[in-house]
User: Fold these one by one.
Assistant:
Number 1:
Amino acid sequence: MKGKSIVSYICFVSGCLFLLLFFIGNASGTSEAEAGKYRLAVVAVTNRTGEYVFSDMLIVQGMANLLAQDFYDSGLFVPIEDNPEILSRIKNLLTVYARKPLDLKNKDFDETFRALACDAVSSATLLEMNKSRFSGFSALFSGAKTTITIKVCVELKMPGGQVYEAIGEGEGVTKAVGAFFQVRNDQVAFDKTTVGRAVKQAIEGAVRKIVERLHV
């Protein structure tokens, strides 16, 4: 009898371990999309400011990365899979739309949307860059100052076809306009220049407005 009891006990413990591993496996296998997160691709950063530097592909890619990161930081989105073919398509789209506006509301883009294997797509348009130079009596002692203002429109298209749009503004003050952006090892350091910080602030502001609407 004792032998049968031991065997039964072992079977019981084994069964419990199997169930535990099964549930753990299912939990770890749950995709982030199923957990309420969407795979996001940033497909366009369009320059309408008249400043050629914003059409430089290194700067375009840097702004696209900023936009994507702000959405990821919201906790609602995750990157698309690291698929070379899809990443190449996105790079081509960024090149095409660096100067040509993209309207995510246009249904002609939906086929491209589906081909990217993502759940949501986003784009940004640099609307304005203004520089105002101030020099007064104080300039005799501290030097004239330049205020840089940037205005950016961000669009986000969700799986159901809904398109959210928001405008963000950024501002920075400097004694000299200097370089627009600082680049190190093919990476744009947006926090190192007045223009870079203004762009970063404008994108963050637009994304924040959209995320707030998604939470409503």
Number 2:
Amino acid sequence: MSTYFPKGEIARKWYVVDADGQTLGRLASRVARILSGKDNPRYTPFLDTGDHVVVINASKIKLTGVKAQDKVYRHYTGFPGGLREEEFIKRLARKPELIVEEAIKGMLPKSRLGRTMATKLKVYRDDKHPHQAQQPVAIAPVA
């Protein structure tokens, strides 16, 4: 069986996803699938065949259960005693784009290919975005 290669240049579409009232994990998995190209019939595992995704209303994302109170984001600065923690509620108020972006990037491959897939993701706090010229197609909310 020979390996499939898409012929010609890959035509990338633009999609816009409204995160208003959607669950973070369900939204992130759906967007990661589009970015990786798995919804595309020309999907090839070792090529970036995904489309561009614009996520709007990131500040209106929700979590189920008590995760909104319990979830903590941690990172280590590299220095002694440098473990930094930030609660979900505080990060949502400060930088909601980062919450959505990290959730989606965490579902992409941890490789050079995954990093190029992540460059096609644009996340915005409210419903305004500068990508109207690309004529993005709206995707229906996840049930």
Number 3:
Amino acid sequence: MPSITIIYASTSGHTEYVVETLAKALSADVKLIRCESATPEDLTSADVLILASGTWNTGGIEGQLNPHMHTFLLKDCKGVDLSGKEVGIIALGDDRYYYTSRAGEHLRNFIQSHGGKVLGNALVVVNEPYGQEEKMKKWAAELQKHIT
């Protein structure tokens, strides 16, 4: 059974809810780590990595990563080598904005620019995650197929 580390940024609780729902749906050893507590070594410690972030409108620019995830990935982990690492993407967003779930693009760019391989399709959760549990479980089942 593969080990999975999910590193996530959550301030309103939505991303945390999504990753907790996924952890319950996966048949694997899953470790959840808030990015504020994560270390660069956490990116490579498990068989599979999943990065999860909401899309923010910080600094007057729409469509950014959660500020905590931004700092973690682009400052703390700028030298991390993800060569050969399979990484899943979870992006949350709000349909009131043009760049609804652009955090996923930023996560993909980080993964690919550090040598990692994007695992399957991203899980995109738009608006409130509550009531979208079946979508999350379906994504978990597809992820399971890729990693076993």
